[in-house]
Amino acid sequence: MRFIEYGTIKKKAINRFALVYPDVYKAGNSNLGLHYIYNIVNEKDGFSIERFFMDLERSIETQDMLKNFKALLFSLNYEYGVVNLLKILKKNSIPLRRSDRKNHLVITGGPLNVNPFILDDVFDIAFIGDAEKSLVEFLDIYSGLNDPKKEIDEFRDIKGLYIPEIHKKSKIKRRIEKLDYHPLYEPIQWGEFEETFKKTFLLEVSRGCRNICSFCLTGNALGPYRERSKEELIQIVKEGQKRTKFEKIALIGSDMPSSLNETIKDLSNLGFQISLPSLKLRDITENTIPHLKQETVTLAPESSEHIRAKIGKFYKDEEFFEKIKLIKKYSKSVKLYFMFGLPEEENKDLDETINFIKKSKKIIRTKSSFNPFVPKPHTPFQDHKFDFNELKKKEKYIKSHIKDVKIENLKGAFIQYVISLGGIDTGRFIIDSLENNRNLTYSSFKKAIEKEEIVIPSKDREWERIEVSF
């Protein structure tokens, strides 16, 4: 299998960092946050950074081993990354607990750090919020230290950093930046290696979300909403062309910018195919859909019309069907995403959702998937209980009415729930299990909760120490 990347940076430097995505290359290389860190560190004199993934155990850039790097930067974007991070350390014979490590500085960043405390015994430093400037400030100080791990106090005044040894019980304010930086050296896969966005430049058009849905971490904890102008986006693409090679552009953002129609048209005129991995109902128009040329368009009705309004998505079913009819003119199929187990949901809501899918199938080829609702910290639904038995009944009900539906594994979702709302006690349970070669399964977490070894949601609600207001 040929591995061919354009935009890769191979650089010799005194300070060599490892950038670790705790999942496979396919998932990690499609994460724009990873490209941000890759560019920011490599742009700094005296620094280089090399990438590691779970299916590529040596670095892509020099084929070196992880243990040979002093600073290890982990990007945490979803709950399983917490467990994978620890497994990666163990596999590379690097002590899991901060107190046991002498030679390696473990640093974390990413959206999961709105609740970093599950790894409170593990990392040396956690970046909270946007890291474009805090990372540069960190590198400036790092370059002047003889032993950054022993001199960790030197980083205490950088805003947006949480250092467990220093910020004992204090609150940490999430850092928020303007969108005035964008990575240009994006390693883009052109070989036979599996990649989510093959031959594609990831273009961040916005950050945050104007919708504050009750279940969603982005609107409640990763704002405020910011967008780039059409002119800036065009310039980023032109500069990116000088540094890497791509045929397609994926517009990245939870909420598309006000200039979406013009941006799609102008980028298409440059000769690129445009894709929108995230698409809200209001973005589907006669101006956008023809230019996208996507065989499948994804929509997220989430639930019944009644529940949809309760969670903050005020779209009527008929509005969705109007858009589905429009999509049919230019695409072959739609994917519909739903959740089940949301607060106040009843069987009649499931019935309405099932009928929604059946109606869509009469219009266009339709695939549907359901995810069990996993509560997130810093959201209005953070206290909602993940009732496994109730969800199991609902899963069975859905499958009995829709034969080709895809439903996320309930046991896996339960583990996400535990990690999402877990605290220091949960982290210690995970560490102890891995150190003693015990499997981390649905059953092991369930038993730990029953024995009160861990409490979910965290009794101390440690995540409230992270100030996410904006």
Explain what you see:
The protein is α/β, with parallel strands linked by helices and 470 residues long. It has three domains: 5-173, 3-Layer(aba) Sandwich (Rossmann fold), CATH 3.40.50; 199-294, 2-Layer Sandwich (Transcription Regulator spoIIAA), CATH 3.30.750; 296-421, Transcription Regulator spoIIAA, CATH 3.30.750.200. The chain is 32% helix and 17% strand. It has 15 helices and 19 strands. The chain has helices at 25-28, 32-43, 80-91, 132-142, 217-221, 230-241, 260-269, 289-292, 305-311, 317-328, 347-363, 388-401, 410-420, 424-435, 442-450; strands at 5-6, 15-21, 47-53, 71-75, 105-109, 125-127, 161-162, 172-173, 188-189, 200-204, 206-207, 226-227, 248-252, 273-275, 296-302, 333-340, 365-372, 406-407, 466-467. The strands form six sheets. A six-stranded mixed beta sheet has the order 3-2-4-5-6-7, with helices on one face. Strands 15-16-17-18 form a four-stranded parallel beta sheet. Strands 10-13-14 form a three-stranded parallel beta sheet, with helices on one face. α3 (80-91) links the parallel β4 (71-75) and β5. α6 (230-241) packs parallel to α7 (260-269). It starts with a strand and ends with a strand.
